[in-house]
Amino acid sequence: MDIVKRIRLNPLERRDQLIELGMTMLSLRGLEQISVEDIAKKAGISRGLLFHYFASKRDFHLAIVQHASDELLERTAPDPSLTEPAEILRDAMRRYLEYVEDNRESYISFMRGPASTDPEMRAIFDSNRAEIARRTIAHLPIPPHVSAARTDLAVRGWIAFIEEATVSWLKDPQITRDELIDMNVQALPTLTLSPGLAAALLD
Amino acid sequence: MDIVKRIRLNPLERRDQLIELGMTMLSLRGLEQISVEDIAKKAGISRGLLFHYFASKRDFHLAIVQHASDELLERTAPDPSLTEPAEILRDAMRRYLEYVEDNRESYISFMRGPASTDPEMRAIFDSNRAEIARRTIAHLPIPPHVSAARTDLAVRGWIAFIEEATVSWLKDPQITRDELIDMNVQALPTLTLSPGLAAALLD
Lengths: 203, 203
Fold this sequence. Notes:
The structure is a homodimer.
Chain A: H1 11-26, H2 36-43, H3 47-53, H4 57-75, H5 85-102, H6 104-112, H7 119-138, H8 148-171, H9 177-191, H10 195-202
Helix pairs in contact in A: 1-2, 1-4, 4-7, 5-9, 5-10, 7-8, 8-9, 9-10
Pfam families (chains A, B): TetR_C_46, TetR_N
Protein name (chains A, B): TetR/AcrR family transcriptional regulator
Keywords (chains A, B): DNA-binding, Transcription, Transcription regulation
C-alpha cells in the first residue's frame, strides 16, 4: 500500500513528511525523475497543497538535496568514543559507504547528473564537502613543514578521489567493499603527507 | 582587426578554421558563451554557411570539445626521449598544467559547467580520461600483489584528484605551480601503491 494514511499534520510535520517521501523516492531514482504529482499522491494531499510548502518544484528539489546532505553529515559524524585518527577515519569511511549504498541512485545522480553543475545545488554539495574537509583536517596529524594551503588542496582532491572511486565502484564493483574502504582511507595520509597516520592505517 | 581575411577555403579547411576560432574564443570564456553568430562574423562567412559545416550549434560545440580533447592529449603525450617513469610523469604533468593555464576558462567550464554532465560531452571527456589513464598505467611500475582492478580505480581517482586540485588552484592559487606539480605527481604512486616510483619522485 503506497498511500500514506491521511492524518492531520501540522505544517512543519507535513513539510518533513514530503521531504522524507522525496528522500525515499530519491533512493530509487535520480533527482530529475522525482515528480511532484507522485509525491503529493503518496502523501495523500493535492499538488496545490504541496506548493503551499515549497514555492516551486525546484525549491522542493533543493530541500530534498539539503536534507540528503544533512543526513550524510549526520550519519558520518566522527564517533566521539574513538580516539585514534586512523580508527576515526576508517569508521567514518565505513559509514560513508553504508550511506552511499543505501542511496546509490541519488548519490550517482548528485555526482554525475545535472544537479552536480546547477549553481544552487552545487552550493549545497560544496558546503557538504567543506564540512567533510573540516572534519578530516581536524583529525589529521600534519607534519609542521607542510603548509595549510597544500593540506587544504590535498584534502579537496582526496574528496574528489573518493567520490570518483565510489561512483565507479557502484557502477562496476570490481573490488570488495573492504578493499575500497582501505584504498580510500590509505589515500588520505599519503596525499596529505602524514606518514604517522599512514603507518597506523597499515597496521 | 578581428575579421579573418576573406579567402577561399576548401570545405575541410573552412571547418578547421571555424573550430580554431571556437577554440580561441573558448580560451577566453566558457562553452555556453560561444555564439555561432560571433564565430561566423570572425570567419567572414554567414551564419547559414556555418550551419553548412555543422548540423547545429550543439554539433559545433561538440566538435570544439572533441578538438580541445585531442589537443590536450597531443600536448601531454609522453616524451619518447625520456625513459624513467618519474621523469615521464613529471614532464607530462608540467605540460598538462601549461595546457590548462593556456585554456583556463574552457578547462573550468568543461570541469564545472553544464558540459560536464551533458551525456555526449561527457562521453568525450571520459574517453579523454580513459586515454590519460591508459598512458599512466603503461608507465606505472605496479607491485605484483596489487590487482589490476584496484590500480584502475586508483588511477581514475587520481585523475579526479588532479582535476579537483587544478580547478581549485586556478580559482585561488595558494601554492606555486611547482608545488601543485609535485603534489599531483607524488599522489600517483602513493595511490597506486608503487613505492619504487614514489621514491624516484622524491629524489
